[in-house]
Every structure is written in C-alpha cells, then in structure tokens.
Amino acid sequence: MEKESHFIPEDDQSIKNPLHLIKENTDEQVNDISEDDIALNNVVTEHFDLKEGRSELQSEVKEFSPKDIEKYNLLFQKIIEYIEKEKPYKDVNFSISELAFALKTNSLYISTAIKQNGYISFNHFTNSYRINKVKKLIVENDLSKVTLMYIYTECGFSNQATFNRVFKKVEGITPSEYINRLNRM
User: Is the pTM here over 0.85, yes or no?
Assistant: First the structure.
C-alpha cells in the first residue's frame, strides 16, 4: 500500500526562502508579483517554522494505518529496552544513527516511532530520558556526598549550562528549585 508523499525538495529555494521572490526582483518587477506569490509566501512562512529540520506541514499530513502504529509501538518498546539495558544515553555524543545501527533499522523509523509516542524529536526523547534519570539519582543519593555534577555527567550531559537549560525546559523549574522542593518534603 503506497502512501501519498508530500516531499519538498531541499534544493527548492522558493520553499526554503520564499522572500527571494521579492529580493530578486528589481523595483519595476516588484509590481508584477501576484497575490498568489504573496499568498504562497504567507503559507510557506506559516507552515515552515522548522522543528528538527522538518516542517509542521509534513508531520500534519502523515497518517498511519493500525498496522503501522503497531509496528512503530513495537519499535519504540525495543528502543526503551535497548536504552535501559545498554545505557547509551550516558554518552554525550549518542545519536539517532547509533541507535538505528544497534537496532538494525534506519533513523527515519526510529524518529517516527519516537514521534508516535509523544516526543518532538530524538533529542527531546533522549533529553527527557536523561532528566528522568537525573531526578531518580537525585532522590536515591545523598547530595552532601554526591555532587550534582557527578549526577548530570553520569546521565549524559556534558556541562552544567546544557544540563540546567534542558532540565528547565523539560521540568519547568531549575535543578536547584527541584532539589529545594524535595528537601521541603
């Protein structure tokens, strides 16, 4: 069963930068730009707020059969099992390509399985997983004996600035606020 493809070629500059229609025209030619060109510019601008290199338009048109959904859910379970067993998230450079290679599939399938399960991207999934591990280690360890740096590096964050930014993005509070709330309980 073939699905309709809504692929937009990367080399189509009118899609990547619709304003080139205006920039490339001389002052006399600007008056020749049609309402269709302006409408195209508005549509492209609205739908191409890029998230991880993919347009919202592309993700909106994808529909999956129940069989596809089951296939991606099974793949997602394999992803979770692999991550729990092998702990690749501890590696700062862990990538979707490495995960695809380990599971003998391709990056697109991995990405789709992750998105089908509520995550925006592979990075969102990995960072959410890392933050959950950080929270678990904070609760399990005495922070007077173990540093927060040890905990976040153990979970795959390379530096404190990245850790703080990702923690706040995922949890809505800073790591310090999280620890203070735990201490008040």
Answer: no
